[in-house]
Known about the structure:
The chain is mostly helical. It has 15 helices and no strands.
Amino acid sequence: MNGKISSGEVMAICVAIIFAMFPGFANTLILSQSQNASLISLIIAFLLGLIPIGMIMYISTKINTNFFEFTKKNFKAFGYILDILLILVAIFTLLISNWLAIDFVISQFLTRSSYYLISILISVIIAITINKGIETLSRTIFILFIISVPVILLLLIPLIPYIELDNLKPYIDVPIKDILKSSFVFLTVAISPVFYILGLKNRTNDKKNFPRKILVGYIITSILIFIILFFIISVYGIDLGSLLTYPIYGLFKKVQIFGFIERIENFAAIFLITAYFSQISYFIYAIKNNLSNMFKIKSKKTKQIITYILSISIPIISIYLFKTYELAPSIEYVPYVLIIFYIILIIYFIRSLFIKTKTS
């Protein structure tokens, strides 16, 4: 292994970390806020999202070293503040995605199991994967991506007979402000994770195509989410679809292949778990790298210990907050907290406009 990752793996990571915030979280907020206009809301969000995605792509063209050094060089002492903010936003995102992953596994499969036990088992697997190196992590995510995404799209075909186009009407049944509010959800929870992809620029073996792969990953995920949202509304109807936490999983319970192959929903479960695993793993990797650079940690063993601490402590804290204090209803305010991401993005973008050196 040469420690490098391909541009295809960058794209796969991009798809996974965007999609992970959709099932169990963003889909519920979007459907409840914009109702039947959710598809319109998603189109608006996608088009507006091209602006911050374009900014991220532009910033990536200015990076010719690791992201920490890039920040340190161009922001001096203020760079440490930016690094701390990025770490805090990443931890905040991880608290949510860990809860979603553990809650999905427990609620759908292991209803009598301990939340903490399951979280520790998952965390150990994630930590081992991360400690194998970014090339192992990225290839794992890429393999899971090329298997799970085509399978999910193929399994949607048997759901076509269940589509009721009348469920899509009226196309606009809420005020414009609710549609825009719903678009705001996508603009924050889906795009903010993409910024962390910049940390891979110096690790890719195809730096020229790095920005393009970010865009392709964004487009693929947006189309995938649109298709799934279309099936949720057209099959379930907005009243039922907006009540279900994991409607994509429930959709496949209706499917039989050749009239006798059942339990197809397990493929959807694998798809969701793949997305959660990918986002959680990459964010922990990103935090570990940032901490190692900030405190000048060179020891491989120390970095591995940091990985285990992050992998185990964050989900435990997540369970404690969401289960003990019942913070799940407050999750609707998450997009507003993530506004801080756009502040960070604008700061980096403005600074990048004055950087003349480009990646060769």
